[in-house]
Amino acid sequence: MFLKFRPLSFLPLFFLCACNEPVTPESAGIFSSVSTGGEHTCAVSRSGVAYCWGRGLSGELGTGGVGNLDRPTKISRDIVVVQVSAGTNHTCALTLEGSIYCWGDNQYGEVGNGSFVSQAVAVPIQSGLRFTGVSSGWRHTCAVASNGDGYCWGNAAQGQLGNGQTFDRSAPELIKGGIKFAHISAGGFHTCGISTAAQAYCWGLNTLGQLGSGVAENSLVPVPVFGYANAASISAGYTHTCGLDGKQIASCWGSSDHGELGTQGIAPIGTAGAYTPRLVFGGTVFATISAGVNVTCAVAFQGNLQCWGRGDNGEIGDGTQFDSAVPKGVGPGFRVVSATGLTHVCALTIAGAVDCWGRGLRGQLGSSLQFSTVPVRVGS
Questions:
Q1: Are residues 152 and 140 in contact, defined by beta-carbon separation less than 8 angstroms?
Q2: Which DSSP string do the residues of 88-149 spell out, in sequence order?
Q3: How confident is the model over 79-127, as pLDDT tens digits?
């Protein structure tokens, strides 16, 4: 896929950046969460400091400069972060006070500060609201306000903002339907969320069944996911979606040309693997799940990590480069996983370290390695 590139207006283009000191290998086990973007990764330390590494040519690392980095580096803005969410070429963070700051590519308004100018430092979104969660997608961002209302901004060409329109927005727009959300996940060109009543909803592009509504029609507003009224969590990938029900059993729907639904089935490219939720092979119970670009990963309650789907870039993490239409074991000792990178996956260990695998040509693995089919420790 090809992305339009708009040069940043504030700095010349450099390929190396020494803006901040990187985290050292000795202090690598300090993280509380991790999020993979297109070709970059970000994480939050236990003290509330946001670090990013990998591709930085659009300012998505938030260091104040433009360039790639292969080690975790503090963002330049002095804010206390409780959650970070890396999109394709932009990143957003939720602060302790409930504010949202974003940085990086902004050609569609995904930074949310009322402009279309890219930012190399974190800037507050244009809103006086307080939020409880944020999710950065392909070219758009969504968040849940403290009162449960959902807001989105950025690219709207396929209706992924959920406001009933297809015009890009550079500031938060209220999602239509009066739904009170507990969680929202921004995907490729669609978005999904869980209501406070445990009903799953999706909106936006639906050519491959990623909305789970049972039909192939796009929707500019939230529509219920068919038969998914007892939902606990949801993760919108690029062209597929996965979730956990009230019993933590995993289901997926949408594209499956690499087996990313985990149902043993492979669908021809350009066709839907499932228009409604299908149980992941074996009816597996997971604590967390993450749908990415043709790959899905999940962590069981015992800490065992499994992945399925595309594997030619090493995304499965099992030491091979083969696709898998059923879950494959990556290893024990993990707490949460983020599979939303273009060709890489990262996971947080129980001890607080971050491991990554897949392709790392931009430094997104956080180590000197540019490719690995098994987890490697960030900072090594």
A1: yes
A2: SSEEEEEETTS-EEEEE--TTSTT-SSS---EEEEEE-S----EEEEEE-SSEEEEEETTS-
A3: 999 999 999 999 999 999 999 999 999 999 999 999 999 999 999 999 9
> Which letter, b or e, does each residue of 147-169 get, where b requires 16 or more Cβ atoms within 10 Å of its Cβ?
eebbbbbbbbebbbbbbeeeebb
The two three-digit tokens of residue 267, written as one number: 């669908």
Residue 356 C-alpha from the chain's centroid: 15
Reference 38, options 79, 2, 71, 7; nearest CA is 2
> Residues in the chain, how many?
380
Structure tokens at 60: 């998505």
Contacts of 373 (CB under 8 A, 6+ apart): 314, 316, 317, 318, 319, 320, 321, 357
Distance of CA 238 to the CA centre of its chain: 9
Report yes or no: 84 and 92 within 8 Å, Cβ to Cβ.
Answer: yes
Question: 230: how many CB neighbours lie within 10 A of its CB?
Answer: 12
Which helix (H) or strand (E) segment is 245 a member of? Answer: strand 240-245
Of 75, 78, 80, the closest CA to residue 90 belongs to: 75
* C-alpha span between 360 and 40 (Å, rounded): 9
Instruction: Summarize pLDDT for 139-164 with one digit per residue, the tens.
Output: 999 999 999 999 999 999 999 999 99
pLDDT-derived band at 380 (thresholds 50, 70, 90) equals confident
pTM across the whole model = 0.92
Identify whether the C-beta of residue 94 lies closer than 8 Å to the C-beta of residue 48: no
CA distance linking residue 106 with residue 93, whole number of Å:
15
Distance from C-alpha of 122 to C-alpha of 239, rounded to nearest angstrom: 29
Give the pair of three-digit tokens for residue 211: 């909305």
